[in-house]
Design a protein that fits this description.
- There is one protein chain.
- By secondary structure, the protein is an all-alpha fold.
- It contains four helices and no strands.
- Helix 2 crosses helix 4.
- The protein is elongated.
């Protein structure tokens, strides 16, 4: 994943994507850290992946 592509995402999506893929946090751990539900984190990660696929045209 090119870092410049990640930088095009909204801050919340960037943060959650980096925590999940680069730092190895689980969705539940991210949710606990941010004080949100696990489904909210899951949705954010899915949204970030969809947006990156669109930008990268894959």
């Amino acid at each position: 994943m090119p870092d410049h592509t990640i930088n095009q995402l909204p801050d919340k999506l960037q943060r959650r994507l980096r925590m999940f893929f680069f730092h190895g946090f689980s969705e539940k751990e991210i949710a606990d850290i941010e004080g949100v539900s696990q489904p909210a984190v899951h949705y954010s990660l899915q949204s970030a992946i969809r947006q990156m696929r669109y930008v990268l045209d894959i």
